[in-house]
Amino acid sequence: MTAVKIKNFIRTHFFYSFKSTINTLYLPIIILFILITGWVSSLLATAQIEENAYKNVNDTIFQTKNYLDNMLSDVFQQLVSLSNDPRILSLVDKEVSEIKPESYVEIDNNLKLIYSRYNVILESVLVNHKQNGFLLYHTSYNSNPSINYDEYFTKFHGNKEGFYWRNIHEDQEFNKNNKVMSIFRLIDKNQSSSKGIVLFNLRAEFFEQVLNKSLIGDNGYLTLISPDGIYESKTVKEKYKLDNPTLHSLQNLKEEAGKFSYENNAGEDMIVIYDTLTSNKWKIAAIIPQDEILNKVNYIKDFTILLVVLMILSAIIITNIVGKYISDPFKKMAKQMGMINKKNLDFDVEMSGPEEMKILHTGFKELIIRINTLMDQIRLEQEEKRQLEFAIMHAQINPHFLYNTMYSIKGLCDMGLNKDASHMISALASFFRIGISKGREIISIHEEMEHIQHYLFIQEMRYGDDFTYQIEMDKEILPYNIIKLSLQPLIENAIYHGVKQKRGQGKITIRGFLAGDTIHLEVGDNGNGIEPQKLKDILLEVEASYQEKKQYLGIGLQSVNERIKIHFGNEYGLTIASEPGKGTVVSITIPKTKGEINQYA
Q1: Angle at which helices 418-436 and 399-414 cross, to 10°
Q2: For the chain (length 601 residues), average pLDDT per consecutive 10?
Q3: Cα–Cα distance for residue pair 199/153, rounded to 1 Å
Q4: How far is residue 214's CA from residue 234's CA, in Å, rounded to a whole number?
Q5: Dihedrals phi, psi of 341, to nearest 5 degrees
Q6: Cα→Cα distances 353→2, 20, 357, 506, Å
Q7: How far is CA 250 from CA 64, 112, 181, in A?
Q8: How far apart, in Å, do the first and last CA atoms of the chain sit?
Q9: Can you tell me the distance from the alpha carbon of 103 to that of 368, in angstroms, rounded to the nearest whole number?
Q10: TM segments (predicted)?
Q11: Which of 186, 528, 533, 583 has the fewest CB atoms within 10 Å around its CB?
Q12: Exposed e or buried b per residue across 27-63, where buried means at least 16 C-beta atoms within 10 angstroms of its C-beta
């Protein structure tokens, strides 16, 4: 009896109408899916943010390490070369009175050359023998240095070659108020009078500029750690500095690269990400508060919770509105059909579900079959129409370019650069407006140039300083005809296969000029170029028919070449010139025409 009452209660209060059935069945499901989606999205976003944050720091360390390694290796090679110079080594066995003036001049010229060439990193260079008996140096300070041999030869030992690196310390030789790092070689032939030293002092300002070039949060910083000390690139609060146990642990780590965390004296979690310089085995480490590197994670979590709550409230409101909107007509129809069917239809088959559905099932059984048949036909027609629209859309735009551009715009919005985002959206709109060209295949070179300027603006916004471009276009050719979207595939090819493959900043040059009755348009880059055999194969593919399968030539360049030949004739089209290490130039030639060109079509 109790089960019957419960069943009647549920039926009376939850399934008594079509609207209440929708709310009872679908609303909990919608809320559940919103909660699951929010939870999964939060986890994925958090994981992605953490991964990106650590990757950015690792990239910063990697780039800084490579730059420092290059500079320090060059300086070290200069020290090795200088200290192994026979003229310097020969001084060890000579008395000061035996050293010829020519030796002073030759060694001094060598020191001057090294100091001037590496002045950006070298604070001073010095060669000293006979305990200051023989002394040559170059520095920006006006001082007469004196080397404390006891300090150097007592404190530094154990290296067979005599080469040593020294972390940040006072400049004892030239200016005690100045901080420097040092690299030097001790020359000792086991005789007190035969000792010498070749010393390079390195500018602390150089390391400060390099390590502070990439900001790592407000309280994060890069540091250089060696067995004899630590150099911190910027001044931070005491609680963010490495404590002695952590510093000692870093100095004794065997792994060349890695990451670990520790708790500072203030109870905050700190992240240490480190790598090792190849030139001197010092550790370069990023020290960042964990809350700072992952500050966006809490924002994502709070935002997700707020969004889920808003979506649930919206789902409740919308479900009630939609339920009422859907059920009211059914109630009216059910009432009308009930009045008619009670006289004409036999309700022998009982149907579960809301009362309205029972009436509709009896009255519209055959009609539903016919509707289903019609709906299948409509769905098939709609699917064919959708596929056709998709094919047209795919032929007009590059989805990958659109996706990357929109993602870049999102990034600008996320950073609050709304003005830049607005400019980028305007450029994107103009890009597609000109690309569509009201269905025209032939446009003016002026319109084409406007189109690629929007394209280059978007790419420049995306890639920043990775490349620059220069446009050299004769004004007299701007009114003449060109097939739309002729230059954009060439520029896209120069970006992705030219300057992006080159280390350092790339450059793209777009030129256009008139030669007789022929217009020449060129897109050049200073990338790595193309090997001769590969270039030969590409040129063969350029001359091959459109239907033949291409190994190197992309569909964009194929399309440009074929469309030019179709519209203007086989004597026009696309050519490629390249030289390894010097870049690539892709050229197209078209006739000088205006207005309609049906004679070529």
Answers
A1: 160
A2: 52 57 73 82 78 83 91 92 80 66 79 90 86 78 79 81 89 86 83 76 90 78 90 84 87 88 86 91 89 73 82 79 66 54 44 55 59 68 45 45 64 69 71 62 85 81 79 90 84 82 84 92 89 84 66 71 80 89 90 65 38
A3: 13
A4: 12
A5: -70, -25
A6: 21, 11, 7, 69
A7: 18, 38, 19
A8: 87
A9: 108
A10: 21-40, 303-323
A11: 533
A12: beebbeebeeebeeebeebbeebeeebbeebeebbee
Structure tokens at 57: 């720091």
**Two tokens at 39?**
């939870």
Q: Label the pairing between strands 518-525 and 175-187.
A: unpaired
Distance CA 536, CA 228 (A): 58
pTM for the whole structure: 0.47
Length of the chain: 601
Given a contact cutoff of 8 angstroms between Cβ atoms, the answer to whether 179 and 206 are in contact is: no
Q: What are 592's strand-pairing partners?
A: none
| Phi-psi domain of 162 (left: phi exceeds 0; alpha: psi -120 through 50; beta: other) | left
CA–CA separation, 251 and 267 (whole Å): 23
pLDDT of 420: 66
Mean pLDDT computed over every residue of the chain: 77
Tell me the residue type at 104.
Y
- In b/e form, how buried is each residue of 523-539, taking b as 16+ CB within 10 angstroms? bbbbbbbbeeeebebbb
Helices (H), 84-174: 86-89, 101-117, 149-155
Strand partners, 584: 525, 578
If you search the block for the tokens 């900043």, which residue do you land on?
Answer: 505
Query: Where are the extended beta strands (E) located within 344-466?
Result: 442-444
DSSP state of 229: E
Backbone angles phi, psi at 262, to 5 degrees: -150, 165
> Can you read off the two tokens belonging to residue 449?
């140039």
Give the type of residue at 387: Q
Do 99 and 135 meet the contact criterion of CB atoms below 8 Å apart?
no
Enter the tokens of residue 385.
């129409």
Contact 554, 514 (CB under 8 A): no
Q: Enter the tokens of residue 106.
A: 């030759």
Tokens of 441: 């295949």
Query: Kind of pairing, strands 467-473 and 506-515?
Result: parallel
Cα–Cα distance, 382 to 405 (Å, whole number): 30
- Tens-place pLDDT, residues 513-530: 999 889 999 999 988 888
SS3 label, residue 182: strand
The residues, ordered by sequence, that sit 6+ positions from 386 with a Cβ below 8 Å of its Cβ are none
